[in-house]
Task: inverse folding
């Protein structure tokens, strides 16, 4: 049953791994590919903290690492910023970085102010959400001509879903404008192509890194504007240089381990899909967290862990990044609304859709529906925060009553002075008795916890055991990867 995969983390890890393959019918066996723990691998994802550096919630030691921001070598990893998408090369098992690389997706003038949740930079549509980190600006403050640096994930439309937006306060210090993206509409005769909404002319550009003198349709490239000649709103550029790019870097050799955060841009079959131009293949042994193979759809934001085999990433684990909200609690009095399709726990309404997997572990009611749920029932719900801020359930399970209450989601606000953090709209209080834990499940101080929380980005889990009231201080607050 799919619900067992969605709720597998409520069980012990060995049971979860044994009972939840669900690879979608692929024939490749991941276990046939192995890598020594000391081998170099790749982890690509969002910086979520420092000390040394946390990428996708995993801490990598950077004591002996070389740090790059574009072509520039930095002195310290803290010269990078939370929210940036980086590539760590090093020992994935030992969590030791050999090098950390940051490449912006676009750096140059904004074409105009933001409209709703998006804006344009050098013809690149930039989409923001609650997880976007802004530095030296805000969505409302963006104006035409602002020099912005954007780091994010390209979606199926080639738009950038931004994780980091920075306004350059001293444009004179920006050496060049640049765009990294895929070649579309290549005209090798006219020597033009598009990247998202930008038309690039490369007739006078340095293209020496291409054997034929031309990029290929669909190829990932970096377009450079060394003269900073781009005119805001023009959506056209005469490039000074175009060069091929490889998001996985030099460590992407066959047999290397890889951990990649990206957005699904194409689904080829039930066991094969693409993320950021990388072909991913699943197998019967692939572990799915917070979702099932049916949730592999264009636009889904996921993290894939696996082994590189030729040009394919053979997936060991697929984690659905957007399905990171969770509640375990009793249904509120009057909390079931069959007509509206919602069930409310802790004052938080969860939307039940036709895609929600429903399971009754308490009474084994089958088929199990929303109308079978009563006030006081103990539910475990997983889901995601929708575009309108609603908690949308991907899975719901009724279980035996429990004195423990948990909730988990990206923290929308924090107040270190008051000792509070807001999760799913609930202000969670802490006290001297609250146990704080870090990304590695180890105890940390309250100050370390609040310093690590990035509003809108960091996932926080709050626990009350035993539970009395949601206003009572949580017994535990933990940072989640």
Result:
């Amino acid at each position: 049953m799919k619900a067992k995969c969605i709720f597998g983390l409520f069980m012990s890890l060995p049971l979860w791994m044994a009972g939840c393959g669900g690879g979608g019918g692929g024939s490749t066996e991941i276990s046939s590919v192995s890598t020594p723990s000391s081998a170099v691998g790749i982890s690509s994802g969002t910086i979520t903290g420092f000390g040394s550096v946390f990428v996708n919630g995993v801490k990598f030691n950077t004591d002996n690492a070389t740090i790059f921001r574009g072509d520039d070598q930095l002195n310290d990893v803290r010269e990078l910023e939370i929210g940036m998408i980086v590539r760590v090369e090093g020992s994935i098992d030992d969590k030791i970085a050999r090098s950390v690389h940051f490449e912006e997706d676009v750096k140059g003038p904004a074409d105009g102010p933001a409209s709703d949740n998006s804006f344009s930079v050098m013809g690149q549509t930039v989409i923001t959400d609650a997880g976007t980190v802004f530095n030296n600006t805000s969505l409302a403050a963006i104006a035409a001509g602002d020099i912005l640096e954007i780091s994010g994930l390209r979606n199926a439309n080639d738009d950038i879903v931004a994780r980091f937006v920075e306004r350059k306060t001293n444009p004179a210090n920006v050496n060049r404008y640049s765009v990294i993206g895929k070649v579309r509409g290549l005209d090798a005769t006219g020597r033009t192509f598009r990247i998202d909404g930008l038309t690039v002319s490369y007739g006078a550009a340095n293209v020496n890194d291409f054997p034929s003198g031309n990029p290929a349709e669909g190829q990932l490239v970096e377009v450079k504007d060394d003269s900073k000649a781009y005119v805001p709103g023009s959506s056209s550029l005469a490039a000074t240089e175009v060069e091929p790019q490889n998001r996985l870097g030099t460590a992407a050799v066959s047999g290397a381990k890889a951990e990649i955060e990206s957005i699904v841009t194409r689904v080829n079959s039930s066991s094969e899909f693409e993320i950021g131009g990388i072909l991913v293949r699943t197998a019967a042994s692939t572990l799915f967290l917070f979702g099932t193979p049916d949730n592999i759809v264009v636009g889904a934001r996921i993290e894939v862990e696996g082994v590189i085999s030729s040009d394919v990433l053979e997936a060991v684990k697929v984690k659905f990044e957007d399905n990171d909200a969770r509640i375990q609690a009793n249904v509120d009095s009057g909390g079931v609304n069959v007509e509206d399709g919602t069930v409310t726990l802790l004052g938080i309404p969860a939307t039940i859709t036709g895609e929600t997997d429903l399971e009754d572990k308490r009474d084994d009611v089958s088929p199990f529906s929303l109308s079978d749920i009563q006030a006081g029932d103990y539910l475990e719900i997983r889901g995601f925060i929708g575009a309108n801020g609603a908690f949308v359930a991907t899975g719901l399970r009724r279980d035996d009553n429990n004195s423990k209450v948990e909730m988990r989601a990206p923290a929308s606000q924090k107040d270190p002075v008051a000792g509070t953090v807001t999760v799913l709209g609930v202000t969670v209080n802490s006290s001297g008795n609250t146990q704080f834990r870090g990304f590695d499940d180890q105890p940390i101080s309250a100050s370390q916890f609040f310093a690590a929380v990035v509003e809108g980005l960091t996932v926080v889990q709050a626990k009350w055991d035993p539970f009395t009231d949601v206003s009572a201080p949580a017994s535990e607050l933990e940072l989640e990867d």
Summary: Residues 1-38 have pLDDT under 50 and may be disordered.
